[in-house]
Each structure stands twice: as C-alpha cells, then as structure tokens.
Specification:
alpha/beta, 10 strands, eight-stranded mixed β-sheet
C-alpha cells in the first residue's frame, strides 16, 4: 500500500455486482476483455451500470511493463481474427451508442496491431444503428504508417494518452517516449481534421503543477482537443506508490488552466481517459 494517507475525497467506490456480472457475461460469451476490469478502474461499476465499457482488444497480456499498470505483461497469444465480429455483437447486445476501444501494447506485431484496430472499427461502423467509435491506441513506437492504418478506418475520436510528464517517463513508462505520444496526436490532427484528438494524464506520481502546465501546452501545440486528468491510484502492491493525492481544488485549477489555452479539459480524482467519453465527444463535436 502507499505510504501516503488516503484523503477523504478518495473512497473505495461501491460495486454494483449485478451490473458487473451482466457486462462480464457478455464479454465472456465473446471471449472479450474490458480495460475496466483488467486495469482495476475505480469507475467500472458505475460505467457497467450505465451499460458502458471500454473494450480491450488483442488479448489481455501486454508486451510492455509500465510501472503504474496492473495489466499482465509477457508474451501475448496470437490475434483472434473473430474478435472484430464478436466485439460488434457485444456492442449490439449492449445497445451502445458510443464505443471506446483500446488495446494492450503489441510490440511483437510488425504494425503494432494497427490493422486489427482498423478491422474492429470497420465492424463497428457496419452496425445499424452505427455507434460513434473512439479508439485509444498505443504509440506504435512512433510508426506513423501504423497510425495512418487506423486513421484510414475513420474513427470518430482518436485518443492516445501521454500519461505523465516528460521527466517521469524513465521511471514509470520506460518503454515509451514522451515525443512518440505527442507525435501521434499531432499526426492525427494534421492528417484527419474531422477526427477529435484526445489525450490523458495521471497525477500523483511526483509531477509538479508547472510540469503539468508544460504538458498541457505541449498537447495544445500538437492540436489536441480533449484532455482528461485523473488521480493515479495504485492498483495493487506491485505498482509504483502514490506520491501524493491532488485535491479537488487543484483539479479544478488544472481544468481552468487547460481551458484558458483552448483545451477541453476534464479533471477530477476519478476521471479516466474513457470516463464519460460520449459526453466529452458531444461537447467538442
């Protein structure tokens, strides 16, 4: 556990077991995964009770080992060619209007799984009624050809999380690069003006307010439109500890700063990159 005392505004959220079991049953039938469960998101019960979930494609084993993440890492299995169709069936069953699709990192695949992302998007766009589609992709190790493969499928929102400030990358995101994260967002903005660009940050890892402002400035400079900022909560005892808990007032201050430079910022202790994603999309569309 973290050595930092848990503040009153951070509480264990009550689980709606009925909603959890219902969504998990749909996932199980299609051999699908949600990042909500795999990453132990504190909002998963709330989102599941609203009939929403963030789908995790390309398996539940990641080729990277970021020190804040509880998703298993190691050697993944081969891609499932039936996954796009199964995911579309799950979306139809759940009656979703806005679908968020993310993935583990698949550095073992030549295109990082970009073609698989495109196949999932195509399957979702073939549904009637068609949901809006938001993707939260890896950085593809800076390979913009892979980003173009995803863009060719025309998602409505393209999200890639910068996750933390540049100084902390060697400590918590050793296999990523801050520049890759910015380049992905900038490339999408330059190639597909109709697609909403989005990124996300965690706080509580040891960053300063000034570093966060620089990061928001950097995201604005590459034409990011939406930024989510939430409190890092240590999933298990294996991940890096929380350095400090940011207050609700500090989150409000970050929102205010971001909006002052032209970003749509959604910040709060329990905010995550896909939390209330449809509402964020509708705001900027």
């Amino acid at each position: 556990m973290s050595s930092v005392s848990l503040p009153v505004w951070i509480r264990e959220r009550k689980l709606n077991l009925g909603a959890l079991h219902e969504v998990r049953a749909v996932m199980s039938r299609g051999r699908l995964h949600t990042v909500c469960d795999e990453a132990r998101c504190p909002n998963r019960s709330e989102c599941f009770s609203r009939g929403t979930a963030t789908f995790l494609i390309m398996g539940d084993v990641c080729t990277r080992s970021c020190r804040y993440c509880s998703i298993a890492h190691g050697k993944p299995q081969s891609l499932d060619a039936n996954e796009p169709a199964e995911l579309a069936n799950a979306v139809r069953t759940m009656g979703l209007k806005h679908v968020v699709v993310t993935s583990v990192d698949r550095d073992d695949i030549s295109d990082g799984g970009a073609a698989h992302f495109a196949a999932v998007i195509a399957a979702l766009k073939a549904l009637d009624p068609r949901p809006t589609v938001e993707v939260l992709t890896p950085d593809f190790r800076g390979d913009m050809a892979a980003v173009d493969t995803v863009l060719a499928a025309a998602p409505d929102v393209y999200n890639h999380n910068v996750e933390t400030v540049e100084r902390l990358y060697p400590q918590v995101r050793r296999q990523g690069r801050y520049r890759w994260a910015l380049d992905v967002i900038g490339h999408v903005a330059g190639r597909a003006g109709g697609i909403v660009t989005k990124s996300g940050l965690m706080v509580g890892l040891g960053e300063s307010r000034e570093e966060l402002q620089v990061t928001l400035d950097d995201l604005k400079a590459v034409s990011c439109r939406v930024v989510t900022i939430g409190q890092y909560l240590r999933p298990t005892g294996r991940e890096v500890p929380v350095v400090r808990y940011w207050t609700p007032e500090e989150f409000a201050d970050l929102e205010s700063y971001g909006r002052s430079i032209g970003l749509e910022v959604i910040a709060g202790p329990f905010v995550r990159s896909s939390y209330h994603a449809e509402e964020a999309f509708l705001k900027v569309r």
